[in-house]
């Protein structure tokens, strides 16, 4: 819609992730699973996953060729936390360019390259080399595939019988402990936040 209404520039956009390309194709092949809003787009002749300036780069050679383009473009690549994958060679080519922008749309865990960049480090190491960070770094919230607190509580409410114990194993800082207290208050269930590398023996006995 933004492109059709000329609200954003018509830039060449590369999806440089074989997995993301395959997943997109799965959605495209299973249009019978679309909701009515998405089906109405398809019926009107608009393909929701594709547009005129979109390019899907499957091969390694196609991926590397993107970095020879000097014109403005958008590169969508993984991994999301910059710990591996094609994003690394794109960072090498662009992280020191003041005219570039690195846009994070997902969570960046402590210790990852993505978190290091997001925290404003002046230089980062990629593949054993140090690169000054001169690109603009931006984070856009709202695209996470993780459930928020309300969604997690709604999921827990679906249990037909209460679990013997709930383990909170995801999150940083005080968040897991705070959520554990919410679960205990909401449902009265025993809730534990295990320490890192703790081993827990689970029993299947009723």
CATH classification, class level of the largest domain: Alpha Beta
Instruction: Please state how the strands of the largest beta sheet are arranged side by side.
Output: 2-1-3
Would you identify the CATH architecture of the largest domain? 3-Layer(aba) Sandwich
Number of helices: 7
Order of helices and strands: EHHEHEHEHEEEHEHE
Summed up, the domain count is 2
Task: Indicate the overall shape.
Answer: globular
Name the beta content range. 15-25%
pLDDT < 50 runs, ≥5 residues: none
Protein structure class: alpha/beta
Report the mean per-residue pLDDT as an integer.
Answer: 92
Task: Let me know the largest β-sheet.
Answer: 3 strands, parallel
CATH topology descriptor of the largest domain: Rossmann fold
Pfam families: Beta-Casp (PF10996), RMMBL (PF07521)
InterPro entries: Beta_Casp (IPR022712), MBL (IPR050698), RibonucZ/Hydroxyglut_hydro (IPR036866), RMMBL (IPR011108)
Protein name: Beta-Casp domain-containing protein
Keywords: Hydrolase
Tell me about this structure.
The protein is an alpha/beta fold and 206 residues long. It folds into two domains: 12-139, Rossmann fold, CATH 3.40.50; 149-192. It contains seven helices and nine strands; from the N terminus they run E-H-H-E-H-E-H-E-H-E-E-E-H-E-H-E. It has a three-stranded parallel beta sheet with strand order 2-1-3. A two-stranded parallel ribbon has the order 4-7. One of its GO terms (molecular function) is hydrolase activity. Pfam families: Beta-Casp (PF10996), RMMBL (PF07521). InterPro entries: Beta_Casp, MBL, RibonucZ/Hydroxyglut_hydro, RMMBL.
């Amino acid at each position: 819609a933004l492109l059709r209404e000329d609200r954003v520039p018509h830039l060449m956009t590369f999806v440089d992730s074989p997995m993301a390309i395959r997943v997109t194709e799965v959605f495209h092949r299973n249009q019978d699973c679309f909701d009515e809003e998405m089906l109405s787009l398809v019926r009107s002749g608009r393909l929701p996953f594709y547009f005129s300036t979109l390019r899907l780069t499957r091969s390694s050679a196609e991926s590397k060729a993107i970095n020879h383009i000097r014109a403005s473009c958008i590169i969508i690549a993984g991994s999301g936390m910059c710990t591996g994958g094609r994003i690394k060679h794109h960072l090498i080519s662009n992280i020191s360019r003041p005219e570039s922008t690195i846009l994070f749309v997902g969570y960046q865990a402590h210790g990852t390259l993505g978190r290091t960049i997001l925290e404003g480090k002046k230089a980062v190491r990629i593949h054993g080399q140090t690169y000054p960070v001169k690109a603009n770094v931006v984070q856009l919230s709202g695209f996470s595939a993780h459930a928020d607190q309300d969604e997690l509580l709604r999921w827990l409410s679906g249990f037909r019988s209460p679990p013997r114990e709930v383990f909170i194993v995801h999150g940083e800082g005080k968040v897991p402990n705070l959520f554990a207290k919410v679960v205990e208050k909401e449902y009265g269930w025993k809730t534990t936040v295990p320490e890192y590398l703790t081993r827990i023996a689970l029993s299947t006995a009723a």
